[in-house]
Amino acid sequence: MRMTVIGTGYVGTVHAACMAGLGHEVLGVDIDPDRVAALSAGRAPLRETGLDALLARTVADGKLRFTTSLAEAAAFARLHFVCVGTPQLSGGQAADLRHVDAVFDGLARSLRPGSLVVGKSTVPVGTADRLARRLADAAPEAGCEVAWNPEFLREGSAVADTLHPERLVVGVRSRYADAVLREVYAPMLRDGVPFFSTDPATAELVKVASNAFLATKISFINAMAEVCDTAGADAATLARAVGADPRIGAAFLEPGLGFGGSCFPKDIRAFAARAEEIGAGAAVAFLHEVDRINTRQRQRTLELARELLGGSFAGRRIAVLGAAFKPGSDDVRDSPALAVADAAHRHGALVRVHDPEALDNARAVSPALGYAVDVTKACEGADLVLHLTPWPEYRTLDPAELADVVRVPLLLDARNSLDAPAWRRTGWTVRPLSGPRTTGGAAVDEPPAHRSPAAPALTAPSGRTS
Ligand code: UDX
């Protein structure tokens, strides 16, 4: 089938390459000429397992090409996927729909009669119907239709998630649109992937409800971890025992520094803002608490770090392990790790960050921090090591080797995923953010008794030191 994919960010690039990989004839569209030039040469603008190879193959065999022209796109096909970003409005909680609106306005002028425009961007409920009215007003004779088909891909496994989804959801207003989308995804349907065909509002809501549930699960276990800490209980064991109930499940139930990234934080805020707009705010008011609990984990980590340093960050050296918002990604958008590193720096610490993939992106958004390409360099002379993104390679570090290079062998494991007993055996004092304070009969690693009354703020700058 012929189709266009408009917007070649994360979702669009992966969708375009995967659709071409399935054998469709795809034209990718982006307003950024540099990006279009790179993609046309088969170079992906992001790191994603399998994407480079898929892009190179589909561009080489002519199944996939790119343009900056919306008019060319409108003429190329009668099926268009819209994958542009819907960031958080600056100064607000709602989604900023200006890119989506601009694409629809741009297309409206030149769409072929009977075209189907399918949104994949995450949008507030009601957006598809609003855009359908806008298209109809702009081109009443064209008889074009708007459908919504949310994506559920995760960074790091985006190609696999697209080619082998757990479910497909389409929100349509006609049998025609339903049939077109079944044809697009025919190989997945043959594989038995569940296909939910519904109205656009439900499809839009499936996406935000899914992300809201996952974010709630993470904040729920982090709230339990806070109670555990106060009660002297073991949050890590509690999480495993609670997750052993199959009705609850162990996934997304790991206590720690909490969620970040380009989706969860902005999606739950936009969901709550939209619910308020339509008069359903009370139903999802809990999402504000989910957000607050999540932010509090960054604050707790920062407070604990300061406590471990004896009450002040000023002039202390901190090695930070991890900058990406999650392992397996080089993305630092709303990264909890970078937020904590930045805050420690603002409070006067000398911070040196290591990350296996995200150093370039981290340096671009937080240029004042120090960076190191290997863990040993990051740890040299450190008074405290902060483990903030749970990359698998950090679990195989040699704590004895690192103990030789730090000034003080003191580790705060904000992801509760390092082997604390192994680190302790080589002389480290280990403090998990949540989890057992004692392991294998070892004594509790108590932080220095010094506790300063005012908590360090995550946001209030207190004089940059470098
Ligand atoms: C998410 C959704 O999973 C995906 O379906 C949607 O399309 C986009 O948003 P992604 O942003 O790639 O995908 O990240 P995900 O793997 O879901 O992790 C989100 C955040 O939650 C990360 O910061 C991760 O570290 C954190 N997390 C995850 C926890 O803090 N605890 C957990 O137990 C699990």
How would you characterize the overall build of this protein?
The chain has a 6-stranded parallel beta sheet with strand order 3-2-1-4-5-6, sandwiched between helices. It has a 6-stranded parallel beta sheet with strand order 11-10-9-12-13-14. Strand 5 (116-119), helix 6 (127-138) and strand 6 form a beta-alpha-beta unit. Helix content is 43%, strand content 12%. The chain has helices spanning 10-21, 33-40, 51-60, 70-76, 98-108, 127-138, 158-163, 175-184, 186-190, 200-231, 235-243, 264-277, 286-308, 336-346, 359-365, 375-379, 392-395, 399-405, 420-425; strands at residues 2-6, 25-29, 64-67, 79-82, 116-119, 145-148, 168-171, 195-198, 317-321, 350-354, 370-371, 384-387, 410-413, 429-432. It is an alpha/beta fold. It is built from 19 helices and 14 strands. It has 3 domains: 2-198, Rossmann fold (3-Layer(aba) Sandwich); 207-291, N-(1-d-carboxylethyl)-l-norvaline Dehydrogenase, domain 2 (Orthogonal Bundle), CATH 1.10.1040.10; 296-443, Rossmann fold, CATH 3.40.50.720. Bound molecules: uridine-5'-diphosphate-xylopyranose (UDX). Uridine-5'-diphosphate-xylopyranose binds at residues 151-155, 211, 214, 218, 252-254, 256, 258-261, 263-264, 325-326.
Output the keywords.
466 residues, alpha/beta, Rossmann fold, N-(1-d-carboxylethyl)-l-norvaline Dehydrogenase, domain 2, six-stranded parallel beta sheet, elongated, binds uridine-5'-diphosphate-xylopyranose
